[in-house]
Amino acid sequence: MNFYLDRYGFQAPKITEAPQDNLSLIIVIPCFNEPDLIQSLEAILACDLPKGKSIEVITVINAGVHHDESIKEHNQETYEQALKWAAAINTPALTFYFILEDSLPKKHAGVGLARKIGMDEAVARFEWVGKDGIIICFDADATCTPNYLIEIERHFREHPKTPGCSIHYEHPIEGEVFADEIYQGIINYELHLRYYNQCLRFANLPYAFHTVGSSMAVRSSAYQKQGGMNKRKAGEDFYFIHKIIALGHFTELKTTMVIPSPRTSDRVPFGTGKAIGDWIAAGEDVYKTYAFKSFEIIKAFVAVIPSLQEKELADCQINSEEQGKKLLVDFLKSIDFDKALADIRKNSTTLASFKKRFFQWFDAFKILKAVHFFRDQGYDNQPVLNETQLLFDSTGVEDMFENERAQLRYLRLLESK
């Protein structure tokens, strides 16, 4: 019996073959109507393997009861092809498994549930051998560098307190596989993601980490402690990884790289593929992101948070223009700030405990909500090229970048160090 699986598991484990006693890493891949699954699996197969460790790859080939028969037929073909492929290459050190789920409930069928099925299966596999192993999230259209597996194993071994980590990623931004507009689209979108992450750091927030579904890993114990993966049809990675970040000691793995696909997609209501497709369909020349002014407001608010243990917000000196102060006050009212502050004070005995509780309440979800509030109330989205340069200007970067590609290359280098 396992408490997590008994209470939160979606279904009973499907893999009946006993795992190796030295099982340490399990990669989970959701796969819905995918044309290039084998290419992703071969990227994992090409990786160097950690010595003395056994690794499993669990792919959940999935669809809902409501999906077209053509999708289910394609899933069946993918399943059979993958089984045949794996039979020829499986070894005790690296074993590929496949779960076919073609009748998931309409309400929840999607990437979140597919990840959950695979990650729950991983919990059961580690439970079988009595190990607190590492569960790695990957995608069926992603690839990786050859040191991917050995670096993940090393990272968790050298950081015994970390419950999870984000893994450095870089989309392809040039080549002949995709059209030029797709490469430009992914340059814009990845720049937007890195700009947002750096703005969180600029504002001195404690949860400035990337939340890309194909580029994260967690300990099985942390996964279970936080209730497992959610069933969201999109954004499941953002909501899940911030639950892991809340445990503390979250880390970043920068010595290897995941290479997600830049392709367009209509599989989810938002996310990378949807964003690229929408931008191309709109025929716009520029890509817009959140106004940098919004993060200046948040930074000014974060600066006075320690004072809020003893003082009221109205008595704090917030270093922001008047419009920004007004929008901040309006936003805080909309999320019952006064009541939350009273509760935080009541349950905090030291400044450290006050700040910890405050940021547990004023979390990444509320930050995103704040940015959307500021956008809707006057700080409209602006060209990502302009806003990223404003960020650079405010953080002491003296260089002027001529285009989004140059800005992205700079942020990639910054975040990989």
Strand order of the largest sheet: 3-2-1-4-7-6-8-5
Tally the structural domains: 2
What is the mean predicted local confidence, pLDDT? 94
Structural class: alpha/beta
- Between the first and last Cα atoms, what is the distance in angstroms? 43 Å
CATH fourth-tier homologous superfamily of the largest domain: Spore Coat Polysaccharide Biosynthesis Protein SpsA, Chain A
Q: Per DSSP, what share of the residues sits in E-state strands of 2 or more residues?
A: 5-15%
Determine and state the CATH class of the largest domain: Alpha Beta
Nearest-angstrom radius of gyration?
22 Å
Order of helices and strands: HEHEHEHEEHEHEHHEHEHHHHHEHH
Give me the count of strands.
10
How much helix is in the residues? 40-55%
Tags for this model:
single chain; 417 residues; alpha/beta; Spore Coat Polysaccharide Biosynthesis Protein SpsA, Chain A; 2 domains; 8-stranded mixed β-sheet; two-stranded antiparallel sheet; 16 helices; 10 strands
Task: Please give a structural write-up.
By secondary structure, this protein is α/β, with parallel strands linked by helices. It has 2 domains: 233 residues, Spore Coat Polysaccharide Biosynthesis Protein SpsA, Chain A, CATH 3.90.550; 85 residues, no CATH class. Helix content is 47%, strand content 14%. It has 16 helices and 10 strands. The strands form 2 sheets. It has an 8-stranded mixed sheet. A two-stranded antiparallel ribbon has the order 9-10. β2, α3 and β3 form a beta-alpha-beta unit. The longest helix is centred in the middle third of the chain and has 23 residues. The chain starts with a helix and ends with a helix. The model has no long low-confidence stretch (mean pLDDT 94).
